[in-house]
Amino acid sequence: MSNEREPLPHYQEPLLQTPFHDRARALSQLDSFIPWSGYTTVDVFTTVEQEYFAIRNAATLYDLTPMVKYRVAGPGAQRYLNRLVTRDVAKLKVNRVSYCVWCDDSGHVIDDGTLFRLGEDEYRLCTAERQIDWLLDSASGFDVAVTEVTEQIAALALQGPTSCAVLKQLGLAGVERLKPFELRGFEAGGLRVTVSRTGFTGDLGYELWVAPEDAILLWDTLMTRGKSRGIRPIGSRALNLARIEAGFLAPNVDFVSAERTLRVGSSRSPLELGLGWLVDFEKGHFTGRRALLEERRRGPRRQLVGLDIDGNKPAVNALLYAERSARNEIGSVSSAMWSPTCKRNIALAMVDVPHITPGSSLWADVYLNRELVWERRMCRARVVERPFFAPDRRRATPPADV
Amino acid sequence: MSAVRPSAAAGYDCVVIGGGHNGLVCAAYLARAGRSVLVLEAAAQVGGAAVTHEFAPGYRVSACAHLLHQMSAQLIDELALAKHGLRFAATQMPTVALSGDGASLTLGATGLSGPARLSAHDLDAYPRFVERLARFARLLGPVLEQVPPELGTSAWSDRFALLGLGWRVRRLGRRDMRELLRIGAMNVYDLLNEQFESPLLKGALGLDAVLGTNFGPRSPGTVLTLLYRLAAQTGAGERSTAQPLGGMGAVCDSLARAAVAAGVTIRTAAPVSRVLVANDAACGVLLESGERIDARTVVSNADPKTTLLKLLGAEHLDTGFVRRVSHLRSNGLAAKLHLALDAAPRFSGLDAAAPGGRLLVAPSLDYIERAFNHSKYGEYSDAPAIEVTVPTFHDPGLAPAGGHVISAVVQYAPYALRAGWDVERERMADRVVDVLEQYSPGLRGMIRTRELLTPLDFERQFRITGGHWHHAELAFDQFFMLRPVPGAAQYGTLLPGLYLCGAGSHPGGGVMGTAGRNAARRILAKAA
């Protein structure tokens, strides 16, 4: 392929392929690909159910390469990040990872992501969507360099109860001592890989970061060595089920970036998203702090909560009411599923105060398609604690040898 | 920087960064309301850019603005500036449009006079045009004296302020209201071509619309800048277009005396390096000397970029706000030429009394627009538009006996000159003298010394980011409740306890003092 071709109009520009693409394509039975941040990625390999159960019972590979990655480095990196995100970055030690959100001036969430501290003055910020304009504008006045490194790093999520065992099979000595949100570099069998004990499934799992030229070697080694541990690749659909059970938010599903909302009132603060625990008002100034202080003083008007809904039909897009007669609309569901592991009908929903406390009882109107006959059913829903699924193995160090 | 030393004094209620005219006005009003106030001026004397400086032995001139168009009569009276030494060498100076052939044109408050030949149409239209604009200007006058309302709040005071403005527009009557709304966002080129025939007349009126701005006559919004200038002149009353005795520095000297009389402490040669913050509020300042001064309120006369991005720093502000401040258009493009002369300059076609007016080199609207064109590409024009005064005509004390001074505002001299000012400064000065020589033959031979101050020099000497006389462009999108940026348009900033009082705030620059007065009112109202 020549590097010097005429640029195409944006609508003809092909999606990029990740370094794992050839392997993924070969294993994809459905050829079901979807776009993600300019890359083509797998939605489903075989069936969603098979892939989902592999996450909860064996080990799975998910291609994370399209995750947008920024290198944040320089003497002012920590001050810069502390002004950017709502958490106290000064508390993040080298080789640790932190889940963060960042807000606009109104205290509304622009995006969430994971922040890796790779060195004294070097961080990596991973986000679902591109943020470079906001990150660069935020850098004005700070001695820091922010560069996108998405294409320079290939990444796989290895998730599931046997994931640690698979890594040990690879010969990553001491990987079992890695604590949640810790990262470390390993070298085994000619492979240099950075492993972080992070993930989007709420289960035991790791994320593996390598140079693109090592990607195929990493994939092949994992698939070979992990065979006995039931390893299989998964697509975005199965991952989405796992993340709902884990109670994680998906951008553009459970909230819309404040930089992209058009309608007044459709952006959300971290307090509204139930992420108040990520906001450190004591650490000094950060963008949105004054607005969030004011919101905390007033109290948020609505909040994202977990719901447990009667029946077994996912309450997808359901509106929520205070009473069965559906007179007072008090919210809506953003993510919903029947959880096979919890055996519960669960959902994430934005609900008006005062119906946000665990135990509150609401009504959801669930639409059922019964052989093309639509039925509307009012189902009782209870506000419950998140996450819905939180097995001890996600935190156990060392993980059980299975 | 040396270590932080504790302040000797226990601190002040208010510290004002910068002793320009607005800082002094603000300080005086705060002190009169019982606040303990300290003014910190970086330079050796107060005044900021409103100073009289000696540019050649025995020759003194106003360094920046040379005429007082807009200082409100109310402010002069309230601060008793006359008692504190403010005198005028001349007031209501006539405007004279110079013509290369000597057929100049004098623009009076009510009519035109020659020797330029004027059409019956222009003679008839001029008084009506001036009167109509004066009506509009009177409507805008109160807006200048007002703390701008904040949009998107539910405060009744903000709503009333907007309703009041709407009501005043409505009360103009149907014909005038329609006309105001029609011309309000127009460019002055189209408006003047619609009204007049004489290129010289149109050039003179057009220059007033763009003087001190980054606009040519064809730029949108230049009718607004003209109305704004007229509105402020209306507020100045009989003392509009005045030349203070002793130059512009004398205005600030009287303001400083008024401030001191009100109880203000003034320290010169005390540059501030940082605004100090504690518990998310301004709590004082750190001087470049390392001295720390505590204050409950910090007021900055410095321009918005200097105040917010340099003295305070982005880390105390939100990204979106910093983005707006960084995008503030604040590059100046007015230069100042000062000539020290051995003898009295003569301008062709003018009688002996005429050099006492404002002399304009703007023979047509197209002439100004062509001069402006160059500035868009980082160049200056060899045929610039110029506003000339001969301050020594009214105030001989500014030069040695028999000598004279010419003070000229030259447009356009873009801050970001492509070739760089340190390379081009003298060449541009040559070109401006060439142009002046056409209107005043023999001028070149009288020049003993000359000085050209470019926006870069204003930035260096007066610490104004971009060297813009108004600190920030006076334009529709940086006006009133958008000045300097939303979030800081009510003199407060997003940081509690830090206020802006300079020309970057409403109603802007010109030696007016209104921004300082409005800021003081806002600070006092907040504390009440």
Overall pLDDT confidence of chain A: 95
Instruction: Tally the beta strands of chain A.
Output: 20
Largest sheet of chain A: 6 strands, mixed
Structural class of chain B: alpha/beta
Q: Percentage of helical residues of chain A? A: 10-25%
Count of helical regions of chain B: 16
List SSEs of chain A in N-to-C order. EHEEHEEHEEEHEEHEEEHEHHEEEEEE
Oligomeric state of the chains?
heterodimer
Structural class computed from helices and strand pairing of chain A: alpha+beta
Largest sheet of chain B: 8 strands, mixed
Strand arrangement across the biggest beta sheet of chain A: 11-12-13-10-4-14
Q: According to CATH, what is the topology of the domain at 12-50 and 70-87 and 244-329 and 471-527 in chain B?
A: FAD/NAD(P)-binding domain
Strand order of the largest sheet of chain B: 8-7-6-15-16-17-14-18
Taken together, the total number of domains of chain A comes to 3
Question: Could you say what the CATH architecture of the domain at 12-50 and 70-87 and 244-329 and 471-527 in chain B is?
Answer: 3-Layer(bba) Sandwich
Share in β-strands of chain B? 15-25%
Radius of gyration of chain B: 22 Å
Number of helices of chain A: 8
Low-confidence stretches of chain A: none
Q: Give the class-level CATH name of the largest domain in chain A.
A: Alpha Beta
Structure description:
The complex is a heterodimer of chains A (402) and B (528). Chain A is α+β, with helices and mostly antiparallel strands and 402 residues long. Chain A contains eight helices and 20 strands. Chain A folds into three domains: 10-65 and 153-234, Gyrase A, domain 2, CATH 3.30.1360; 68-151, Aminomethyltransferase beta-barrel domains (Alpha-Beta Plaits), CATH 3.30.70.1400; 276-384, Aminomethyltransferase beta-barrel domains (Elongation Factor Tu (Ef-tu), domain 3). In chain A, helix 2 crosses helix 7. Chain B is α/β, with parallel strands linked by helices and 528 residues long. Among the domains of chain B are: 12-50 and 70-87 and 244-329 and 471-527, FAD/NAD(P)-binding domain (3-Layer(bba) Sandwich), CATH 3.50.50; 125-232, no CATH class. Helix content of chain B is 36%, strand content 18%. Chain B is built from 16 helices and 19 strands. Chain B has an eight-stranded mixed β-sheet with strand order 8-7-6-15-16-17-14-18, sandwiched between helices. In chain B, strands 1, 2, 10, 11, 12, 13 and 19 form a seven-stranded mixed β-sheet that branches. The A-B interface holds A 79, 83-84, 104-105, 134, 137-138, 140-142, 284-285, 287-290 and B 280, 309, 313-323, 326, 487, 494.
